[in-house]
Amino acid sequence: MKQIDMVLRVLLGTVFILFGFNKFYVYMPTPPMTPNAANFIAAIISTGYLWELVGVLEISGGILVICRKTTVIGLIILTPIIINIILYLGFLQYSIGPAPFLMIFFLLLSCITLAWKRKAKWEKLFQLR
Predict the structure, then answer these.
(1) SS3 of 129, please?
(2) For this UniProt entry, which segments traverse the membrane (predicted)?
């Protein structure tokens, strides 16, 4: 289980680091998008700050997820971004093929697995006392 945990941490962290840096230095080709998805991304970019803010949060969250002792903090940072990505892919990109569903599956699997493995830390975080 430790190896699976390490692989998921490295994969999830690397994905977010790469996509985060791509928001500043575009080195990956733009994937096919539906018109609604393209409008959504264009609106985020046109704000002038939100695209870069998400990039910074993705990079920092990815680095924190890779480090074993800071995985929970990284998941706290990345969970709202992951939820948004899942909704974006599920509602705006579902018609382009199986790729969005594979990414949704990977994000859900890795995030839930990493969070479940650290459930004792989450219980301490959300104690009412």
Answers:
(1) coil
(2) 7-28, 40-65, 72-91, 97-116
